[in-house]
Amino acid sequence: MAYLNKVMLMGNLGKDAEVRITQTNKKRVSFSLATTRRFRNPNTGEMQDDTAWHNVVAWDRLAERIEKLGIKKGTPLFVEGRVSYRQWNDPQTGQKHNVTEILMDNFEFLAPRLGYASEGERHNFDMNSDLGASSLPPPPTSEPDSELPF
Predict the structure, then answer these.
(1) Taking Cα atoms as reference points, which of 54, 72, 80, 58 lies closest to residue 111?
(2) Which has the closest alpha carbon to 17: 60, 62, 73?
(3) pTM for the whole thing?
(4) Where along the chain do its domains lie?
(5) Rounded distance, CA 139 to CA 116, Å?
(6) What single DSSP character describes residue 93?
């Protein structure tokens, strides 16, 4: 039996990408990504937004690429990766924390970037090869649930 842990998100960065170097000298970039679902309120008939926030993390060469591009708050981005769950204990309080993160494998700008990236530019990261970029058609759009015929 095959197993799959794959996430695809389209949203806007909620904060500038934050770069850190671990104690083992690995580069880590993290940012929040907001995704919004638009739906019609069944009681009022008005359109409403439901925004979810995702913690996105990139490592090593992909993290270096994101750092060089200087991805900022508000940037529309397509992110592909996998869900990761981890726990850590606060050394000061001893309190246990649970964290859900999207470990990014590649990304694509959803709008033109000034000077260095075009719309649809994709940045892939494969553990078995060098970081590369290839063109890919944009992900399909979908209708809001309230407008489906069933």
Answers:
(1) 72
(2) 73
(3) 0.70
(4) 7-38+45-141
(5) 22
(6) T
Distance of alpha carbon 101 from alpha carbon 106, whole angstroms: 15
Pairwise CA distance, residues 141 & 145, whole Å: 12
Which tokens sit at 98?
């649970």
User: Looking at the domain covering 7-38+45-141, what would its CATH class be?
Assistant: mainly beta
Strand 7-13 relative to strand 132-135: parallel, antiparallel, unpaired?
A: unpaired
CA atoms within 13 A on the CB side of 2: 3
Question: H or E stretch including 134?
Answer: strand 132-135
- Tell me the C-alpha distance between 34 and 75, whole Å: 10
pLDDT tens across the length of the chain (150 residues): 899 999 999 999 999 999 999 999 999 999 999 999 999 999 999 999 999 999 999 999 999 999 999 889 999 999 999 999 999 899 999 999 999 999 999 999 887 655 444 444 455 544 333 333 333 334 434 444 444 443
